[in-house]
Amino acid sequence: MIRATSMIRPLLASLVLCFTLSAQTPEFDRRVQSVIGVYAHPKTPGPLGYANIAAKLRLHEDPELCSRSLEELLAAGPTGDMFWMYPVTAIAYLDRGQLSASARQALRRSFLTYMPYRGDTENHWLLYYSSLYLMAQLWPNQDGSQWYNGKSSEENFREAAGWIESWVKLTTTRGQGEYDSPHYMGLYFLSVSYLAEWATDPAMKKRAAMMIDYLIADYAAENLDGIFVGAHSRVYDEPVLEKWLNVSSDFGWVLFGLGRPLDPPDNYILFYLLASAYEPPEILKRIATDRTQPYTHLELKRTRNRWRFFDDLHGPVYKTTYVRSEYAVSSDQGGTLQPIQEHSWDVTWTVPDPRGVHNTLFTLHPYSSLRELETYFSFPPDVGISGVVSSKKSYDSPDKLVGGSPYEKIFQDQDAIIALYDIPPGTRFPHINGFFSKDLTDLREGPPGWIFAKGGDALIACRPLQPYSWVPIQGGGKRLFSPYLKNGIVVQVAGRSEFTDMEAFQRAILALKLEFRLDPAPSVQFHSLRGKTLAFTYGETPRVNGIPLDYGHWPLFGGPFVEAAVDSEQLILKYGKMRRTLDFRKLTVTDTQ
Fold it and tell me: Is the pLDDT of residue 12 over 80?
């Protein structure tokens, strides 16, 4: 049962006692305060938005202005569905007696008169249910006549709690569905931050606090100076190139002091900080920042819900990431694992200042199909592609640089990638695109068919399997265009410190054994710089030194820093002799040295 109290009596006051900025270091606290200050004291004059109101309430500033502004916003009519719910939920919990009675009543009334859409993605549902959970906790013992959906406070609370608990279990057993998105990661972080700070049920509070560690660990092992390296379930057109332009930059900077935040920081990091403002423990800081030794990191994720054409609701996503101080190479196995915004593989290199820099390289088949959309969405077919293009404008473009394809298969071993394409005749956009950045240097096309370039301190060799041409990209760089149905590319990366110069790297690559054929299906055998023989045929299991990849025993997390077995509901963080074990079955956290 939800504990009884009136909406303006002391549940908020009691929550004040548990509201603490959990900053453990002065540096972290300075970063926290700087983000809150950006929103509490906007540089340009104008009416306050929800984020400004929330930041001011956190600092106990201008309560009359906050009250007046909130009433004006609500009187104009809420919009945004779950993206409206999360800021007003924060305002309700940051109030702590500062808002006027009329502003507080207007906020309560809005949850009766406005019906927010629950959404159709994993982040939508988590935002929706974490907000609903907290508002039902705040306004208990009210019948359905007081709520937009006709359900009582207890019914809303129970439904929200059940979904949140099921999401945590699914994520800690089979992986996240909307995985490793450098943009949408912020919405997961802020949702669990809300629950960790404001839930009064001890089990929910502990579960959410543990999920913050879980999500941070998921990001920490796959970042380079704060930049989230691929592969991604969802990423937008501009930030897939300028990788700094992602919400992940805000979190890397605030949590670990890495890189640079966005200017201004996105409100996702603000709302994370307005709730728990959790500073990661030392072990996560070490995992996020130590790149002294190269390592391979494995992850198992799952596809978005598949409503048609598949027997299983979710399919597995096998991720491999190889990280060095100079660069990272990351991939999934290829295929349409997420609709529209999937990013299946890339090379990312470190740069001193990532602003305005396109520090990445990748290829893709620009697939566009109603079948893909009908797999993952439930809308009628006659509005499928047109409905998507209205918001994701590049989806139906042959030039696009974001998206997955059922005709792309990928194999990675350490810093070598083999991507193969077998596109059926009659397929829309029957070609592959390759992104070659404006920030690559010393780009040369050498015999027999290799392309060489430098990206920062990364030396990159690419071998397209079919002829290609170059197409200029607006804003700089060029697109490799190869109009062949059976196609592929072999990529090998190395550190500049491993070779005396580019010529030495080029000689080493040309000395490697490479054999391939295109019929009946693309097939490659490549002896990598790391001394391994990689064999990959489209549609078959890749082999390393003759041994097939064991997808059946792929770990939920596997690597030197993060470890978790499928179905274990347990995550182990590792650094040197340090261990931190999160057990979601027992809701315990155990630290050992």
Answer: no
